[in-house]
Amino acid sequence: MIIRSLTQVLSPAGDGGKLSILIFHRVHSHPDPLFPDEPDIRRFDAVIGWLSRWFNVLPLDVAVMHLRSATLPARAAAISFDDGYADNVDNALPVLLRHHVPATFFVATSFLDGGRMWNDSVIEALRYTEQRLFDGRAWGLGVLPLETLEHRRCAVQSLLACSKYLEPAQRQAMVDQVQDWAGVALPNDLMMRSEQLLDLRNAHMQIGAHTVSHPILERATDAQARWEILSSKDDLQARLDQPVTLFAYPNGKPDTDYSARHVAMVREAGFVAAVSTATGVSAIGSDPHQLPRFTPWDRGRARFGARLLINLRHTACDVTQR
User: Distance between CA 118 and CA 173 in Å, rounded?
Assistant: First the structure.
């Protein structure tokens, strides 16, 4: 109970309250040998068990309401997922329901029903290809070996890093070349189906917008960025027949992936809150349209809890001037 007690001290109720928001992406059925740090069901179950004992886990919109009115309970936290992977419903949802823990799922709408995110095309191409070398000289990467899982992991990281901030058309051209080179059929069932989105709604989970195609907003024109933000909201509201009031910035680094003009667009679109991927916690004075998120990658209970305690010491306040 030491972690819970320390959390109570660092995250009290009322005006001194702090909101920890955790971020997840995928929950695999079994450990992924290519990405061993990503949680599988067993590890996710352990993490949610820890969180439910250490924190008061709230729906995100409820947490934001309490944050604004300085009425947060002690040890306040919320859980979020980005992108809209099918395993969020198949694997994560049963765990959340078993622990009676709410979560918010931020969905990029163009990938529903058989779509695939560009980064997953790269990952799955390098995962399944029978090639043993990747010639990345055209992108300044040299010739990358693919003999071992570690080689493939490094190659994936290198390709994603050099392509993430390319213009969308350039990035897609790179992805297409990688896919053609790999010579393998890529999965088309990684992302949620429409009925799974309804399963989340019917399980009383929250669903937020994450744009249409997950662009780096800072690399988009203002017209494109506004369309991505508004269209994702409208699409989800039509599918769910309920308001969508929460938003997550793609990639989410302040001043790198989005800027103050995008915060203004999100606010003008009627979202009551939005989340970034800046580390830290929110407190009175934090911008509700730039809430930070953090999840430790540590496997052990003690180290996982210790890193959450350290994160509680980093408060995001006065970020409205970004």
Answer: 10
The length of the chain is: 322
Q: Note the pLDDT of residue 322.
A: 35
pTM above 0.90, yes or no: yes
The span from the CA of 289 to the CA of 299, in Å, is 31
The pLDDT tens digits of the residues spanning 173-188 come to 999 999 999 999 999 9
Phi first, then psi: give them for residue 82, nearest 5 degrees.
-110, 150
Q: Is the pLDDT of residue 1 over 90?
A: no
- How far, in Å, CA of 105 to CA of 203, rounded? 12
| CA atoms within 13 Å, Cβ hemisphere of 175 | 21
What does the H/E/C string look like for the chain? CHHHHHHHHHCCCHHHCCEEEEEECCCECCCCCCCCCCCEHHHHHHHHHHHHHHCEECCHHHHHHHHHCCCCCCCEEEEEEEECECHHHHHHHHHHHHCCCCCEEEECHHHCCCCCCHHHHHHHHHHHCCCCEEECHHHCCCEEECCCHHHHHHHHHHHHHHHCCCCHHHHHHHHHHHHHHHCCCCCCCCECCHHHHHHHHHCCCEEEECCCCCCCHHHCCHHHHHHHHHHHHHHHHHHHCCCCCEEECCCCCECCCECHHHHHHHHHCCCCEEECCCCCEECCCCCCCCECCCCCCCCCHHHHHHHHHHHCCCEECCHHHC
Amino acid 17 reads G
* Cα end-to-end distance, the chain, whole Å: 38
Tokens coding 48: 């949610």
Tokens of 241: 């027949």
Q: What is the distance, to the nearest Å, from the Cα of residue 296 to the centroid of all Cα atoms in its chain?
A: 13
